[in-house]
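thought: fold this chain, then report.
action: predict
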Amino acid sequence: MFSRPLNLIRLKSPENTNDAVKDFISNGNCTLLIGEKPLFGKTRNGKSDWKIMEGNLFMSIGLFNEDVKTGEIVFKVAVAVGELLSNWVENLQYKWPNDILVGGKKICGILLEYNSGKLVIGIGINVLHSPYEWTTCLDKYHPISLNELPLQILASLRKHESKPIEQIVAIWRSKAFLLGKEIDFNANGKLERGLFVDVALDGALVLEDLHTKEQKKFYSGSICTT
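observation:
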């Protein structure tokens, strides 16, 4: 999938890279679009008010793929990026469903979209700047070339995409944020409290009721940290 011929595009100020890359996806290619300073970020819920700072990485990968298991792909992308970043940082953790933390602070976010055979994977990494006090950036740990980083990420994706999902999820679990802890979980507006016991191979978070011990799977939502 990621080993297809590369179509590399750089844009100065796209609205956001996930939407922009959709116009360049072509059959048989892997399109990598890099936005120098997008007008806004994008989240699972739509437009984001995330602070855009030039010098950080905003990239999206787009390709045609009819056979997509989105939960597995999110794990593979997170681990591929995380294993690369681990060359330069310590105390890296994966926060369900799509964030990477260093020292408990967010350094990377991932957004996957799939529609009508078009797969889009957005990756944002704080390289030179930390937009908020609860974030961190690579430059605090190791100087990184912003021009080289997207291709290093693509190389790591190619390295990890053929690995069995069981191996990928085992790596993710070994560095999972709050796994085995009691958490508050926002299930799309409904607050759930329970023990974060596992993640399933299909991407679900598994939460155990503190009283009944019943386990529920969640495919959307977020772990509350404040």
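thought: worth noting. The first strand starts at residue 6 and ends at 11.
final: tokens above.
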